[in-house]
Amino acid sequence: MINRELLAILWQRYKIYLLLMLALVLGFAVMNSQTGVKNWQAEYHNEKVAKNTFEEQIKYSKADTSPEEKHPGEVMLYHGEGKKETYTKDFKEFRDHQLQFYLTNEIYGSGNGYIYFSQNITVYLVCAIVVGFLTFFLDYKTGFNTLLFSSRFKRGDIFKTKLILIGGGFFIVVIAAKTIALLNLWWQIPMEYFKVDMGQALLGVLASSILTVTVYLTSCLAGIVLAEWVTGLLTISLFWFSLLFLNNALTELVAVVRYELLGRKLEDALNSRTFLMRVEEIYQGYQFNWKLLLLSVVISLIMLVISFSLFNKQDLTHNGEYLAFSFLRKPTVILLVTYITFTVSVTGVSRYMYMTNVTFSPTYFCIKLLISLVVSYVISQLLVYRQLKISSHLLGFNK
């Protein structure tokens, strides 16, 4: 059961921020979807430009005498990944196809490559990161935890009430915003052009919202673990930004393994897709992958359990330090060194596979690995301990 008295106290403290979040997310969703509608309507009322575009493509196709041109004098109509393209000489067919409105992982707007609408997932991700991180970090830094921990309310109730009020409110706002954006598109674009399976699209809304919750809960954990404003904000920002580089590193590593160890063809090896890439497809489009979503739920539960356990152990003695828990110092150093070293050293390892006169150099890779290891160790020591001390322990990890 929710402690109503505690809920009322927290609501009075957070209501301005929650209402601001509501206005920001809903306002963005409505304006973003309305921009998609306006983009489509502008194309719909601009037939003259479309006619000129069609004629230019026909002219270009006729002038192309290369063997690769199998359909001279025709325009290609793209129907999406995994579907066979078609060709036409008829402007009406081209025009109808141009105005078709899709929502898939590879197309935002038109099956002929005209982009009318994009979800702009960056806004939702940034909101999830900021709201998640501040859910527990703000009260820790402002001293409000001192009041809460000394009150009659149990820590478990404080943790649960915060997540229900802030996390639950954020999830409802996100899923409502995405649904409103989708319904706005469905309402304003004529049905003969709106080629969207609404059932699948609504499932996709749920899927991307669940992934947003995973990002939120991961950021909540960071807000409990970290204990200093500047380094805390830098760490959470750089972590999420570095996932782009981690994704590239994983992609290149998978490509090398496929090419060198499994003997795959070069084009097959280079077209490998990592886990993070598949997650991104769900987030960017209206896709529903049960396995990835189940994994997302499992990760969310793990983040929730760890956060609850640490919150019950949290005190104020480490306020101003990098970490709020002294027993996490050594694991954090190990994690930082491993993460940075792997991401930096593996990035670029597949370059020799698709560049002429470039061969893989084990010596260069080992030097890059060693430099990454040393630099990451120095960074982690300075972050966690605020000093660089070489000890006799393995890798010099301080206690």
TL;DR of this structure?
The chain has 399 residues and is mostly helical.
Describe the structure.
- The chain has three domains: 4-34 and 119-324; 46-109, no CATH class; 325-399, no CATH class.
- Helix content is 69%, strand content 3%.
- It has helices spanning 4-44, 47-63, 91-98, 121-142, 144-149, 155-188, 198-225, 229-261, 266-270, 275-284, 290-313, 329-346, 351-354, 362-385; strands at 75-77, 86-88, 102-103, 108-109.
- The chain has a two-stranded antiparallel sheet with strand order 1-2. The protein has a two-stranded antiparallel sheet with strand order 3-4.
- Strand 3 (102-103) and strand 4 form a beta hairpin.
- The model is unreliable at 105-114 and 392-396 (pLDDT under 50).
Average pLDDT level: 83
Largest beta-sheet characterization: 2 strands, antiparallel
C-alpha termini separation = 41 Å
In total, how many beta strands? Answer: 4
Please write out the topology.
Blueprint: H1 4-44, H2 47-63, E1 75-77, E2 86-88, H3 91-98, E3 102-103, E4 108-109, H4 121-142, H5 144-149, H6 155-188, H7 198-225, H8 229-261, H9 266-270, H10 275-284, H11 290-313, H12 329-346, H13 351-354, H14 362-385
Antiparallel strand pairs: 1-2, 3-4
Using brief descriptors, characterize the structure shown:
two-stranded antiparallel sheet; mainly alpha; 69% helix; 4 strands; 399 residues; two-stranded antiparallel ribbon
